[in-house]
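Running co-folding for histidyl-adenosine monophosphate.
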Amino acid sequence: MPIPGIRGFKDILPEEAKRWQHIEKMARDVFRCFGFNEIRIPILEKTELFARSIGETTDIVEKEMYTFVDRSGESLTLRPEATASMLRAFIEHGLYAQDKIQKLYTIGPMFRHERPQKGRYRQFHQINAEAIGLDSPAIDAELMTMAMHILSALGVSGVELQINSLGCSHCRPQFRRDLQSFLGTRQAGLCPDCQRRAVSNPLRVLDCKVERCRAALEGMPSLSEYLCPDCKTHLHAVEEHLRLFGVPYTINPLMVRGLDYYTRTTFEITSLALGAQSAVAAGGRYDGLIKELGGPDLSGMGFAIGMERLSLLIGDLQKIGEEPILFVAAMGENASVMAARIAHRLRLAGIQAEIDYEGHSLKSQMRRAGKIGASLVLIVGDDELARNSVTMRDMKSSRQWAVDFNDDIEALVRRIGKEMGRVV
Ligand code: HAM
């Protein structure tokens, strides 16, 4: 009996992997233009890192982490997100000593034990960017613009940027207290989880998706009315910069995000095409978190794009420029040796060259060439070879012609490259 994969853990099959490579390449290009450098971090961290950064009473930490005790008795967790790990690395390696401004990105898998459904997996992948040591609201707008730009560079349209401010350590505590008292009057209408959250972490009630909780929130205090003058000025400046960069947005005062570390700006980029799991990207500012994790008192702002959701939003692969493929078909013993030499030479020159080593008939080799989408077939036969000649076939037009090469393989290779639009 075959052993199946684990629920919520998805294989990325070759066709989809091509799309992922394209996404990653475009994202890396955009990061370069915005001055972001790559950092690669482990997928396992001490459990405590996530509890302290994401928050003990968030759904992620309470219910969704893959946590286990390893053979040395230490509690470890498969990272549920990248921000905490990136900050841990930033602090541990004293990157701030070289430059307190660090613009970093990472791409890789995250793990959350959520209920799998369309666009929601237990192993999923993020493209994650963090800008550290920059306080200006222009940075908040710049990161949102960068996320939107990655999507538009990939041809994704119909997305909406929603922003909000969650206030800071001066103004949020009062809102939290008032919200807690308000929720106290609505206890009976809340789901069991929210009855608990109303006491432990009242802001989390705001993103509960249960219908009766949404109804119970009718008439709740509005966070925007609690923002202190500095937070209001910050939000207005973010808006001004978004207008400057020509990025449309809406303010969603109910958006609180599922992680506790945010201060002031938060945002989500959503698409109706994704259904219930509508956020393709999300992020925000987290001033205070680096200090909380034992580092210097530096601000931070970042976001993550969900690869699986982004992949769903990208159209057909046909739109993604694919490299041309050459198929070298051989008939006869000498021809097979020659075909192998030519294919090898072309591969070293950067052309995808496919070859059949199994001695199949020409008909079957041509069928194979069609199946893999070759644009050009080079037919090498023993008889022709004796006359220093090979045949080329354009698969699209079915045009076929003889090429004489006077024993000069290099000239032949250059000629093939030219036919394929490559300089070899
Ligand atoms: P998040 O909102 O938890 O934020 O996740 C960001 C994005 O990751 C989501 O918008 C979604 O596209 C994708 N995502 C999250 N969970 C899943 C899942 N179970 N299956 C598939 N995709 C998923 C964060 O992770 C923050 N660390 C973002 C951030 C960076 N904030 C500041 N810096």
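Result summary
The pocket of histidyl-adenosine monophosphate is lined by residues 81, 83, 112, 114, 119-121, 124, 126, 128, 130, 258-259, 279-284, 302-304, 306, 308-309 (CB under 6 Å).
The chain has a mean pLDDT of 94.
Job closed.
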